[in-house]
Amino acid sequence: MPYVWAVLLCIVNAVWFVTIIPGLPGTWLMIASTVFVALWWRGGTGPGEPGMFNIWTLVAVLVIAGIAELVEFLAGVAGSKRAGGTRWGAVGALLGGLVGAVVATPFIPLPLLGSLLGACIGAAAGALLLEYYTGQKLEVSIRSGVGAGVGVFFGRAAKLVAGALIWLIVAVAAFWP
After folding, report:
1. Backbone dihedral region of 127: left (phi > 0), alpha (psi from -120 to 50 degrees) or beta?
2. Of the candidates 138, 133, 103, 141, the residue with the CA atom closest to the CA atom of residue 121
3. What is the pTM (predicted TM-score) of this model?
């Protein structure tokens, strides 16, 4: 029976992994599924036999997910700053990325990638607009916007790498406790 649970968990976590692309909390859904299985399937039949996951596996994937969330959250801000943007460009990148992911998704007819492109475009537009609105030259504003868009893209890519790592750790731990 534990192998059935392990296979089901791997399939469910693979689905959650794909949800990272449009910006959904796939890493946290993977952890929630893993904790559910860890609590539901406690392991062997005798006392003292290990369950499917030990606490250190769960802590490790939780730390990875937290770091990935922080990196993704700050990537657009860092991209804007690195490109010479001000604090206003960073704020614009943050707000624009959130708005772009939500608003652009229905208008960019690419499954899963529409949200990613929307977040990148939104971050770029938000940084550019706030930089320009607060008195920066157009050239500086454009550079800040491009930096923010690229930062959001790489932040999401980092979160995908973290999601793949979480999936791999959980899959290995599920079959070899």
Report:
1. alpha
2. 103
3. 0.79
Nearest to 31 by CA among 67, 68, 58, 11: 58
What are the phi and psi torsion angles at 115 (to 5°)? Answer: -70, -40
Dihedral Cα 72, 76, 78, 82, nearest 10 deg: 140
The count of other CB atoms within 10 Å of the CB of residue 46 is: 6
Encoded tokens for 126: 């938000």
The pLDDT of 46-55, averaged and rounded, is 64
Tally of CB atoms within 10 A around 1: 6
Q: How much of the chain is in helix, strand and coil states, percent to nearest 5?
A: 75, 0, 25
CA distances from 142 to 48, 73, 80, 133 (A): 61, 21, 10, 12
Mean pLDDT over the full length of the chain: 87
If you search the block for the tokens 């993704």, which residue do you land on? 72
Backbone angles phi, psi at 25, to 5 degrees: -80, 60
List the helix and strand counts (H, then E) for the chain: 6, 0
Identify the three-state secondary structure at position 48.
coil
